Amino acid sequence: MSVFDAVDFDQHEHVAFFYEKETGLKAIIAIHDTNRGPALGGCRMWPYATEEQAITDVLRLSRGMTYKSAIANLSFGGGKAVIIADPRHQKSPDLFHAFARCVEQFNGSYITAEDVGTSVEDMACIKETTAHVVGIPGGSGDPAPFTALGVFEAIRAAVSYRLGRSSLRGIKVAVQGLGNVGYNLCKNLAEGGAQLIVNDIDPERVERVVNEFKATAVSAENLFSVETEIFSPCAMGAVINDQTLLELKCLMIVGSANNQLASHAHGEILSKMKILYAPDYVVNAGGLINVSHEGPNYNAEAVKRHVRGIHGTLLEVFHKAEELHVSTSQAADLIAEERFKKGVS
To answer: Which position among 80, 91, 127, 172 bears the catalytic label?
Structure first.
């Protein structure tokens, strides 16, 4: 498979492949755009079935980070890394030190962070070998609560725009994925009076949310067809596809998962179906905003105020889509592209 011929190659500036025999490291680092600043994006550790899947993921994710940074008005570009390995069984300090040496080769043009399959503790291990890492203990820490806060604010914005309501009391939200972000989102939603319908591949996570927040568990097969105001995908990407579009019975889609649309065309289809889609990279920018504040003057309350601005940004996207008669995904792209193509003024 040629990277240049890949469907998701989007004039990426740099795509690098790394292998180390001693540790078994197999990693890909992709930098999409650095016009606004160094590429910032997490390191995902996942047991991809094929290298093609890993390449597709890192290309889509790195591009998404460019758009996410731009629409959040941050002085960063977009990049991402993937380690092809099972995070449950193949983690080791040597592996992360090897990965850190790969990051070091970019001389600061790529900054890594936590993502699916990696943790704050893993970032601390990487920090032992490279300074080009954020989201470490004693720094900005775990980004998940801030990502969840951003999703919560996005849900409030979507409910306000679509239903004309300021309260979430009684609003049904189907949450797919109950990891760190999904759990914290459920906590925020429960405190706001929402009714939770949940699913996760890990039954212990489901049991925890059911017990703590009085959520209703449903099977993966039935999740998309639940009649609910909001579907909130907080797991892996491409969940809105040709098959699931036929099943959806929600009014809005607002979640933290990256690359929720399997293709750009699905954003257009959602618009025609009158399902309000909150573009994922607008919604899930809270974690990125958090690590952008990392430094000696880090202030969690200042970060929360910044993250709550996602509410207004999303309303801006909705109104632009309405004004231009385009889908919300198109509107978000137009705003982001205008910002990253001219850089930081």
So the answer is: 80
